[in-house]
Amino acid sequence: MPPLLFMTDQQRIPDPVAVIESLPSGAGVVLRDYDLAERRALAADLSAVCGKNGIILLIGADAELAQRVGAAGVHLPEYMVHRAPALRRQYPRFLWTGAAHSYTALVRAERTMLDAALLSPIFATASHPGSAFLGTPRAAQMVQRSDIPILALGGIDASNVGRLNGAGFSGLAAIGALAEQAG
């Protein structure tokens, strides 16, 4: 599992290629943008860029597209995590991750044999303004009770990333912070 994931968001980061090219080899990208009309073309473009740069590509919610573009795996939104066992049987070579927004969702991710979960939002986030967030102490308790790798997502930036030290996360996932770093 990559220790660093960039989550695409066409509304906030219209050119994900610039961010991907700034990532270290071994990092990962999750193509979200589920409703994007040109999603298939973007997936193919990202696959080429990721392959050239040693970046692991996961396609959000679409194993068929992941297979078509040669991605390493699939990221499932929380509402789809229950489908992971059947999807794993159909696509056994993939890395499988899923979103979790609560401890119950983390337990579900473990039971469905995901390779890792992205726990969010840890902090207040621009992607979901005004939404409640977990905070470091609560998130750390969830991570410590989990048996699968957990990556922190949501509102993580240079001003608060240090608060995650010692919380037990396997890595970080971000949108804006990685775009700022690239830019």
Features:
TIM Barrel; 33% helix; 183 residues; alpha/beta; eight-stranded parallel β-barrel; 8 strands
Can you put this structure into words, describing what you see?
It is built from seven helices and eight strands. The protein has one domain (4-182): Aldolase class I (TIM Barrel). Helix content is 33%, strand content 19%. The protein is α/β, with parallel strands linked by helices. Strand 2 (28-31), helix 2 and strand 3 form a beta-alpha-beta unit. It has helices at residues 16-22, 39-53, 63-69, 84-90, 103-111, 136-144, 176-182; strands spanning 4-7, 28-31, 56-60, 73-76, 95-100, 116-119, 150-153, 171-174. The radius of gyration is 15 Å and the shape is globular.
Short summary of the structure?
With 183 residues, the protein is α/β, with parallel strands linked by helices. The protein has an 8-stranded parallel barrel, surrounded by 4 helices.
Named CATH architecture: Alpha-Beta Barrel
What amount of the residues lies in strands?
15-25%
Return residue spans where pLDDT drops below 50 for at least 5 consecutive residues: none
Rg result: 15 Å
What is the overall pLDDT average?
96
Total separate domains: 1
Envelope shape:
globular
Main CATH class: Alpha Beta
In N-to-C order, the SSE pattern is EHEHEHEHEHEHEEH
Decide which structural class fits the backbone: alpha/beta
Distance N terminus to C terminus? 25 Å
If you consult CATH, what is the topology? TIM Barrel
Reported for the largest beta sheet, the result is:
8 strands, parallel, barrel
Number of helices: 7
The CATH homologous superfamily corresponds to: Aldolase class I
Percentage of residues in helical conformation: 25-40%
Strand order of the largest sheet: 1-2-3-4-5-6-7-8
**What is the tally of beta strands?**
8
